[in-house]
Amino acid sequence: MAVVRRQLIVPVTFMLLGSSAWAQQGDDMLPPPPDAHAINDHAVFHLSLVINHYDTQRVVPVTRQQNAFFVSSADLLQAGLPAEHIPQGEVNVSALENVRADYDSAGQRLLLSVPGEWVPERVTAFNSGLRRTTPKYGQGALLNYDVYTSTTEHIGGQAALWHEFRYFNGNGVLSSTGSLRKTLSGSLRQQEGYMRYDTTLTFTDEDDATQWSVGDVISDALTWSSSVRIGGVSYGRDFSLRPDLVTWPLPAFSGEAAVPTSVDVFINGYRAGNTQLQPGPFTLTNMPYINGAGDAVLVTTDALGKQVSTTLPFYVASDLLKSGLSDGAITVGALRRNYGIENVDYGTLAGSGSYRYGLSDYLTLEGHGEAAQSLTLGGAGAVLKLGRLGVVNGAWTQSRMLGDNGSQLAWGYQYNTRLFSVNTQHSRRDRGFGNLALYDQRNLYNNEQTNGQRPAASLSRNTDQYALTVNMGDFGNVGAAWIGVRSFDNKKTELLNLSWSRNLWGTSSLYLAASRDNQQGDWTFALSLQIPIGDMDSAAVSMDRTPDNGSTERINYNHAMPTDGGFSWNMAFAHQSQAKNYQQGALGWRNNNVELQGGGYGESDMMTWWGEALGSLVLMDGQLFAANRINDAFAVISTGGHGGVPVNYENQPVGETNRDGYLLVSGVSAYYPASYSIDTLNLPADTQLKDTERKISLRRRSGYLVEFPMVQERVASVILHDENGKAIPLASEVDRAGKATAIVGYDGIAWLENLEEANALHVRLPDGKTCDTRFTLLANPDHKLQTYGPLTCRRNP
């Protein structure tokens, strides 16, 4: 047979060769293969669009005709190219002036090189700061308390309870503060009983950074005006609700990158950070940690490692507002009188308002007004940045109160650098000038007490302040300040203060100060040496000399309270040249529920002994918690009734949930997106969780229930064997009606979830064959991991 095949090969071969030779031109029996070049002369590709080495992250249809590339004008405009250079319809990008188009077949990209001015400027927020998150809030109540008791030898003792009650929900926060005093011994009877301080209902709007307050409020004020306590309503801007916002102008550094580039920014010699830039014009904004005068050095590095350094001077003033940004508040109500003396004492109806507006990044305008019966006041001012030469401020205020006219002029200058800073502030007032702070002074116009004169109560006629600080590097820091005050009866107060400080070894420091009262002609001196000892302890030695008290030498030792609780203590001794020796000692202890302190201080024959307990009681989600004092926000962690679950706040352990599955986390900063997580290592094996970490921010002075839902599921592992007692092969699939498919692992073991009391298993083997088995789930009150088997899986025919 093999011989026959060899004999047939030769004739067949000649027949094929011959038929090829006899074929006439135009025969269609075997057409030629298509020409690849002809296909590429007109084709449509979907390519990534790259402009000046910048990947636009867009895939666009590209038509190729005779080595020309056509792209829709809409795609080019959406990629950022200017409309004035792009015609309508399908655009031959290869024919555009000053444009080069290349096709990257390997990367399936269309590479366009265009003039730099065609690329839109990209604004890069160098430091975006705190990201904006929607704050969470819940419903609950808390009571902050501070119980203080003391007794002094030969005088007597007192006890006081300070409190803050706070109720919060999604609408706002209601708070009330006060104190209760009681004399325990001796003749100290002043201010006994209950004293109410403030009761306020607050509503916040984080989107607009505004706040409504109803009740006891404090009016807004500028640097050249005064605040007063009013019982009424206040509405205004509150930028503390938006820590993600930078309200003052920051420098913007512009440039142009020809290729993808990284930039390092150095502020006053310190590396502030790094960011990536794409080709084209760029502007860097939101430079971090800048205030005063300095230099920013931008070091750009391209893909080839070439570096270019650019130095840009700047001056930043936090007293300014960004261009177009406004700030202000208005308060209307009755003036509060005898605060801290009377519970309820309100006077005349009054109103106060302040407003600031950033006209430009160099100029902020200010205005302030006050009104009451027989009082009108209005003022205007401005804060102006003088380029890199500092900031000047000025304001003029005119008032008419109880028939008298008066005015106030205030001005100042500030300049800050890394090496030194200068600050001056001045004010001049007329005798008739008045405002709400003076309006309710009952003896202001008592002619019997003032000899027929009308002084402006506590306001001075002239005030002048000068301050200078100099950073001398390794030689320390020097400061000097002079304050001059002249009253309307020409009494002068002039104070001069000089200081010097220097870091020594480690974190120890030396401080020296001297001050002089020019009217008295006396000097006061102080010297202090601070010596840290380890992470928690410190010692201090100091001495001072005053004209009235002579010289005093002190020694102090302090052990700080650990952040997670524990003990703290303090001991001090002072030798006084004109009095008996002074000594003090204190001991403190804190856990998650309460802080206790106590100690004694005084001279040997008149010691004062004191004790204090402070903390907070919180009611939320039907649970009562004891915690450390809560000044801002807090979170309650819920683990669905599972006790003993470790909880972390910002990756630091803060405790375990109680037997009901709750833990209160105090000391939370509002509007900061913090991380709350739980450790699931010791949870029962049949516990299922949706997540183990949540990152949320909380509303100011509110609480929130952070839930980690847990579900107890019927789970178990099964050991599957075939009819010969061998383990079911690896990677076999276990099917159950309406359940997810499970995979068989080593030794025939499979992990099954969502089990029923009776479970039928259908196993598909790797060779395509199947087998079946079943088992009954036993009770598992301790939620321990259960293993069933070996179960015999019988093959199906």
Quick synopsis:
It is found in: Cell outer membrane. By secondary structure, the protein is mainly beta.
| Total count of helical runs of at least 4 residues | 5
Mean pLDDT: 86
Oligomeric grouping of the chains:
single chain
Helix content: under 10%
Radius of gyration: 40 Å
* Strand-pairing-aware structural class: mainly beta
Number of strands: 55
- Cα shape: globular
Strand fraction equals: over 45%
Largest pleated sheet: 24 strands, antiparallel, barrel
Report, as a whole number of angstroms, the end-to-end distance.
45 Å
Spans of at least 5 consecutive residues whose pLDDT stays below 50 are: 1-31, 33-39, 445-450
Main location: membrane
GO molecular function, one term: fimbrial usher porin activity
Signal peptide: 1-23
Membrane topology: Multi-pass membrane protein
Q: What this model shows, in words?
A:
This protein has 797 residues and is mainly beta. Among the domains are: 37-118, PapC, N-terminal domain (Ubiquitin-like (UB roll), Roll), CATH 3.10.20.410; 215-226 and 323-413 and 426-458, no CATH class; 253-316, Sandwich (Immunoglobulin-like); 623-712, Immunoglobulin-like, CATH 2.60.40.2610; 716-795, PapC, C-terminal domain (Immunoglobulin-like, Sandwich), CATH 2.60.40.2070. It contains 5 helices and 55 strands. It has a 24-stranded antiparallel beta barrel. The longest helix is centred in the first third of the chain and has 21 residues, at 2-22. The protein starts with a helix and ends with a strand. The model is unreliable at 1-31, 33-39 and 445-450 (pLDDT under 50).
